[in-house]
Amino acid sequence: MKKLFLIIGAPGSGKTTDAQLIAERNPDKVVHYSTGDLLRAEVASGSELGQTIKSYIDNGNLVPLEIVIDTIKKAIEEADREVVLIDGFPRSVEQMEALDQMLKNSGDIQLLGVIEVVVSDETAKERVLGRGRGADDREEVFYNRMKVFKEPLPAIEQFYTAQNKLIKVDGERTIEEIVADIEKIIKEKAQI
Ligand SMILES: Nc1ncnc2c1ncn2[C@@H]1O[C@H](COP(=O)(O)OP(=O)(O)O)[C@@H](O)[C@H]1O
Ligand SMILES: [Mg+2]
Predict the structure, then answer these.
(1) Cα 94 to Cα 98: distance, rounded to the nearest angstrom
(2) Of all atoms in ligand 1, which is nearest to the CA of residue 9?
(3) CB within 6 Å of ligand 1 — which residues?
(4) Mean of the per-residue pLDDT values of the chain
């Protein structure tokens, strides 16, 4: 049985960094995938699919459902540790529903928690514009990404709150504090 945790949050909330650190600290038990990094790896491969993905990323729009679901499915399948962390997913109601269906069809994956790293818009903006990762870290694109992030958020929060799976974490503290907090939640819930 794979124990799945999702980590969501605004662009620049630190969700990838946090999840990465937790996986590094628990190498035997925890594996981490960042949806954005997986999609960017496809772009970097130079494939035709990567070209399609790039056009969405560069404008701060969501990559189409089917591509994202394929990416997530592959990540979960290849995960060879007890606990699987995925950050940057779900980013829409349809992604959330597709995952729900996937979980219902699979006896092998258990969703144990959805952790939302909460930061203010100002903090998100400062961090994203400060890192300048690519075309999508420009100011206009940042505003679109925030809009795309916020629009489905209430529905996503409601859905996982009803399942008693949503945990909000204050992302405005030091990385050390945030990571310690999330790691504790994961260890308790996964009993590792
Ligand atoms: N779940 C997803 N569904 C659709 N597109 C996604 C998803 N996750 C990432 N992307 C694409 O990758 C871009 C960058 O995402 P990501 O690296 O997660 O940013 P950040 O870590 O700053 O939140 C998004 O703006 C979007 O184009
Ligand atoms: Mg990220």
Answers:
(1) 6
(2) 23
(3) 11-12, 16, 35-36, 39, 56-57, 60-63, 68, 88-89, 91, 95, 136, 145
(4) 97
